[in-house]
Amino acid sequence: MNFHTKETSYNNRYFSEKYYYSGKSNIPTSMRIVWYNQEMIDSELIDPGTPCFSFFLREDCINWIKVQGLRDAENITRMVLEFGMTSLDVRDILTPGHVVKIDNHNNKVLIIINSCSFEHDDHLFTEYIAIFVKGNLLITFAETDEPLFENVENALLGNVMNVRQQSSGILLGFILNSLLVDLIESASRMERMLEKIEDTLLSNNYSQKSLGHKIQKCRHVCLIIRKNSHPLRSEFGTLLTPIEAVTRQEDIYMFEELSDQLEFIIQTTYNSESMLNSLVDLYAPNNDMRANVIMERLTIVATLFIPITFLVGVWGMNFDYTPELHTKYGYLLAWAVILFTAAFTWGYMKRKKWF
Question: Which of 19, 31, 150 is nearest to 86 (CA)?
Answer without folding.
Answer: 19
